[in-house]
Design goal:
The protein is mainly β and about 400 residues long. It contains 3 helices and 20 strands. The protein has an 18-stranded antiparallel barrel. Strand 4 and strand 5 form a beta hairpin. The longest helix is centred in the N-terminal third of the chain and has 20 residues. The radius of gyration is 22 Å and the shape is globular.
Amino acid sequence: MRTGIVYKLFVIGMFTFFAASGIYAQITVSGILDSSVSLQAGAGDAPPFSFGFEEFANIRFQSKIRDRATVYGAVNLFAAAGDYAANAELLAESAAGSPINTTAYIGGENFIAAIELERLYFRLNGEHMDFDGGLMRLPFGYGQVWGSSDFLNPKNPLKPDARPRAILGTALFLYPAEDLKILTFYTAPRDAFSQEGKGSRVGLSLDKHWDAVSIQPLYSFETPNEGSKYGIHRAGLSVKADVEVGLFMDALYTYNHEAGTEIDGLSFSVGADYSFFDGNLLALAEYLYNGETSSTALKYGGSFSNNHYLYTSLTWRFNDFTNISAALISAFDDVSFTPIITFNHDLFQGATLTITAQIPLDRDLFSGDGNRGELGPLPPNSPIGSYFNFTARLRLRF
């Protein structure tokens, strides 16, 4: 844990920027403030019972420069104690799966705190062309749960509120015809300290929309680096159709010649959603095949180690302000499951209360036979886990 004058200068710089922007330019500021508490029944080396507190703000701002350019930015502010602080520290040490995973923390009397620059980029607007450059998000694919094509922004349904990652790069958007978009992009090397461009990614995607069907082909090449002296190729296709049932398919194949990639380079998901009772009941199901070296694999930037998964959910809308959902995430290879119950209620405009409970299950929980599952209370090769996790969050939008 590190402290220093750099953080004080960063905070002073932020407020100076906002103040100056308000005087000399038109700037729009918006964001969210989440106040969360958690209760957990731990497994393995985790405490039998524990709790935590978290205060998280995502502050977004944008400013137009005449009609030809816009500057965008977003900053995350984070303060935590208990479970949230312990988990944040572990994620920072492993540098994986957290919106603040490379952030150093300031220690208070009973909390840790952090500041992270989440987005900072510009957009130049043209009649049939846009150009973006900076720290930004580049999303791909139409999948709702697993995100096979979204290799720059891996998804995890166990963490639905996680902020998507940003990348440092450029993107050129072309609009040659109505309902047609062509995107070319470049990202800086995976290793931020690389001065030779090893591990940079370039790519091309196309979005075409018809009345009921949309398609998005994608190709990306990662320049040679220590993991592949020939570079890594990624090619995919995402399709969605809005018929009586909403259908979607998302696939990305990752090929590494040096590793001799075969079917294990494929991440493929397919799903459907449908509403009943005048839209008050929404059913969703999405299957994932996760190859061992694919975009969704744990060792290659994703979050999963099994091959076959299924996400199913039902959401009931009581009225315009209240809904409840029940989801089940299933891993078939090791027979493990995580049911998730979520309750949402709009207290008033701009304020939402969300209560969530997760209950990991596997064969070892019921039989004690040692068959621990990835989605169970104590995942394989992990010293800590959870039998039950409860969180309550108040979100304020401004």
